[in-house]
Amino acid sequence: MEEINEEWFESRVPGTKGITRVSRFLRNDFSVSRRLLEEKWHLWTNEERLRFAGAFSARGELRHDDQGLLDFLMENGTPQIWMTIALLVSKHKDKDYALKFLLERVKEGVAPLANYYQALEMLVDSRSASALEEALSRHRADVDSHPNPRSKTERFIYWDYLYCSAALFRITGREEYRATIRKMLQHPDETVRKMVPLVASSNGIAIG
Description:
Blueprint: H1 2-8, E1 9-12, E2 20-23, H2 34-41, H3 46-56, H4 66-76, H5 79-89, H6 95-108, H7 114-123, H8 129-145, H9 152-172, H10 175-183, H11 190-202
């Protein structure tokens, strides 16, 4: 595993905070061809595939052969990989294909879904509103049945609920969705209350 770690990640020394591991895909001059990925894919374990996807997801903008890599991961990935690359999918050159892919993941409902909601928000396509509304209805039922989240899985329920609401607000502009987010500021669980400003800030939504 260390070999894979060195292949897609590198060590950096940021000031006096010690050594950190960062993706090589953060460098503009680093690239991987689809052909190379196709050759290696069947040799890797699921963990190694996910590690590559995680490194690739750090790419800010698609460049070089990135489009080919993204297509390959969309075609050959798993739910974990798709969740990892969701934000990059929003930068796919074929926006209709990206929209279809993301909505399929939302309809499949393999949690957590927050990354897909953020990606759909970045596309800002009104065609996603109906699927998002259906998803929000499911999340609301989940939230109502877990009023006191304790486990990591239960907290993901709230993340999905909030990010879905945020995506709907940004896409439709309807105040009811911002109100849904604000309401969680009154939740009896402190962990949930702390989620709200984080989601609002990351989505550029004023809740004050």
